[in-house]
Amino acid sequence: MVTQLPPLNRAFRAYGLAVGCVVLSSLAAELVRPYGHLADLAMIHLLGIVFLSLRSSVRTSVLASIVSIFSFDFFFISPRYALAWSDAESIVTFVAMVVVAGVVSTLSENSRRQEQAARATAARTQALYELNVELSSSRDAHQLAAVTARHVSKLFAVPVSVLLQTPEGTLQPAESERDRRLSQKAWLRREFVKQSAPSGTAIWIPVVGAHSSLGAVGLRPNVPFEQESEQGFLLAACVNQLATALERVQLAGAVRRTQLEAEGERLRSSLLSAVSHDLKTPLSTMIAAGSALIGRTGEIDPKAADEILRSLVSEGERLTRLIHNLLSVTRLESATVQLRRTPESVDDIVLSAVERFNDRTRKVPIVSDIAADLPLISAEPVLLEQVLVNLLENATRYGGSDSAIAVYARAAEGAVLVQVEDDGPGIAEHEREKVFEKFYRGQHAPKADGGVGLGLTICRSIIRAHGGKIGVRERTGGGTLVEFTVPFAAAREQFSREASLDP
Amino acid sequence: MNRSLLLVVEDDPEMRSVVSFTLRNYGYDVREAATGAEALSQIQTRTPDAMVLDLGLPDIDGFVVTACVRQEHEFPIIVLSARGEEQHQVRALDSGANDYVTKPFREGELMARIRAALRRPVPVAERRDLNVGDLRIDSTQRRVFVRGKEITLTRTEFDLLDTLARNADRVVTHRQILRAVWGAEHVDEVHYLRVYIKLLRTKIEQDPARPTRILTTLGVGYRLVSAETLS
User: Mean per-residue pLDDT for A142-148?
Assistant: First the structure.
């Protein structure tokens, strides 16, 4: 909107201009007087009035023309310095001056008014356009409310509150008791609510969608405000845009929920089949092994008993890892996953994972080669360890316990690059993307080994959550090479010993 | 010699009997409690030498039990919990537990932790020579010997080693170490620790790439291993 000066200030300026014009034209006439006729001096006064009329209201111009007449009469018509005139010629001049002032100022006022109206229309169109652009790039209801509040507040130069209908079917509460009442009324009855009070006029208008009332928008205008006015229409237009945008977002949300439900359903059924087949395998072994020993501890050869107990424990451990992976999937897939990242050293994480495998029944130890002086990475260490454990477990499963498995870590463009390789059968090229899909198991996967096809899915979720990448390649000389990156920690979390002043 | 008395607090009867059975097998006296309240009243009647505590008790949360016990008692608390997430471990250790073993656990692991916990940590006030495996730390003169040979450590490195050594065989959390070595205002600067652990390892480990003395518990802290458990 066009900025408007306070009324007093505006009047002061208008009258100042008028007085200035009169005084200046009289001074100019005084300068010309020794050389010109009286008619010339009258023309100079007329010029001043025309100049003023182009810029002032009718009332000011006519008043100024009368003052100008008196000034002309007083200073220039003889007898000078007296308010008296004799001839008809002067009277014609006077009348002409008043008429010219009236006509010119009326014309210029009209054209000014039209220009102002055009400018207001342009500003309104611009404001609505800007609101529309920003609304269409917003994705959730609260963002829409905030955008609308900001735009409307800018338009009317007062604070604006936008209240939305909550999922429970109530309206968000307004700050004051009075606003709560008014906003409820606007929202429920879907009508324009205006209430004047000593503390100021409050306006609430409903946000009405195609099917329901979606909320209410409230403000306290600092100038008189009518529903059926330019401002009223502008506000209504803004609120309508909000309603349309809100319905769009609601619709998009509904579509997404349906998709998620379908995806969830698919996951549940795959999970059920995985649980029924694969979790049962180790459990069966454990129960069989344990029951074989019950009541017969004396009869069984201690060596055989030991063997049975060993498999009982190792099956239990496998079950633990499986459950751990299932839990991780649940956590990583929930929308609110928040990593607890700390500056970590790559050595610690790699070693921790590798040692877990070298502890067990490996014939050939896993080799690890970590570049010296790698910067710290920003990671949730236990999750990264899980990535490595899953990769090493795959390498062991497909390459056998005597396969050559190696882990390498080195710096690569602002991140650490970790590679896990084995000399097993490798993964066919067309499978290298698919192996990361949920419940997908490669063609070399043993049938009943307790794997459910989640390991790499989890690896990918974890690495992506860390802002890294993971992929499968063929190892030079045969076998599988899985590599992933994890970004380095920020510079302020890198700690140089030189800076620590440690004697 | 007096046999140590251990209190096993666990609500699941199967688990409780397995743990008690194992502990008795190793020659400890064992008492059992199924709830937090029962545990606290047992402690009132007779103070145990150590407590094995489950976090998920039906009445009082294990963290609360730990805090209650710590108000009056110094005996070691070993948490035995199915909650494996490292933030639970950190919380239990920071609130006064001495060690944390996650379920499912291996017998050997639990026994090693109990043995370590029963060897009381050396209070700062009692500064004297510390022998941790083949490490000897002379706290008064701030000198360190590895297999009889003296090594030079910076002030921070020494403080770090000293902190770990006084709690040998126990996991000391990042915050505990940072508070002890760098001061309370630096408890979140984990990166200091990463760098100094690395420096310390290059000085006291035989193969710094495969540390056997200072072990990492990811997301929780570090543990200095004494020779006894080293083998």
Answer: 88
Could you tell me if A137 and A78 lie in one domain?
no
Domain boundary among A188, A220, A254: A254
Residues A43 and A82 both lie in one domain: yes
The per-residue pLDDT for A350 is: 93
Interchain contact, A502 vs B84, CB within 8 Å:
no
The mean pLDDT of A25-47, rounded to a whole number, is 85
Find the CB nearest A381 among B104, B199, B219.
B219
Q: Are residues A188 and A100 in the same domain?
A: no
Q: Are strands B77-81 and B99-102 parallel, antiparallel or unpaired?
A: parallel
What pLDDT score does B51 carry? 95
Give a yes or no: residue A303 inside a domain.
no
Q: Which residues lie across from B99 on neighbouring strands?
A: B78
Domain-located, residue A282: no
Domain match, A444 and A352 both = yes
Contact B59, B37 (CB under 8 A): yes
Nearest chain B CA: its distance from A250 CA (Å): 37
Mean pLDDT, chain A, rounded, equals 82
Mean pLDDT on A275-301? 78
- Our CA-based measurement puts residue A494 at a distance from the nearest CA of chain B, in whole angstroms, of 7
Question: Is residue A72 in a domain?
Answer: yes
Please answer whether residues A219 and A232 qualify as being in contact, where contact means their C-beta atoms are separated by less than 8 angstroms. no
User: Taking residues A369-388, what's their average pLDDT?
Assistant: 89
**Dihedral angle of Cα A226, A232, A235, A236, to the nearest 10 degrees:** 120
Contacts of B202 in chain A (CB under 8 A): none
The last residue of one of the domains, among A254, A285, A320, is: A254
Q: How many CB atoms lie within 10 A of CB B225?
A: 20
3 state SS of B33: strand
> Which residue, among B91, B171, B175, B191, would best test binding to A if mutated, counting the most A CBs under 10 Å from its CB?
B191
Within a domain: A328:
no
The residue assigned the tokens 């920071």 is B94
Which of A382, A489, A503 has its CB closest to that of B218?
A382
pLDDT score of B9 more than 90? yes
CB contact under 8 A, A502 and B209: no
Domain that holds residue A459: 339-493
Give contacts of B157 with chain A, Cβ < 8 Å: 502
Q: pLDDT, tens digit, for every residue of A54-89?
A: 888 888 888 888 888 888 888 888 777 777 766 766
> Can you tell me the distance from the alpha carbon of B145 to that of B204, in angstroms, rounded to the nearest whole number?
9
- Residue ranges and CATH numbers for the domains of chain B are 5-118 (3.40.50.2300), 129-230 (1.10.10.10)
What CATH number has the domain bearing residue A245?
A: 3.30.450.40
| CB contacts, 8 Å: B155 with chain A | 502-503
Same domain, A356 and A486: yes
Closest Cα in chain B, distance from residue A401 (Å): 21
A103 plus A133 within the same structural domain: no
Q: Which residue has the higher pLDDT, B8 or A139?
A: B8
A chain contacts of residue B104, beta-carbon cutoff 8 Å: 316-317, 320
| Pick from B100, B98, B91, B66: nearest CA to A340 | B91
CATH of the domain at A418: 3.30.565.10
Considering the entire predicted model, what is its pTM? 0.58
Q: Torsions phi, psi of B167, nearest 5?
A: -115, 35
Q: Quick one: average pLDDT of B101-117?
A: 86
> 């490595």: which residue's tokens?
A388
The total domain count for chain A is 3
pLDDT tier for residue B230 given thresholds of 50, 70 and 90: very low
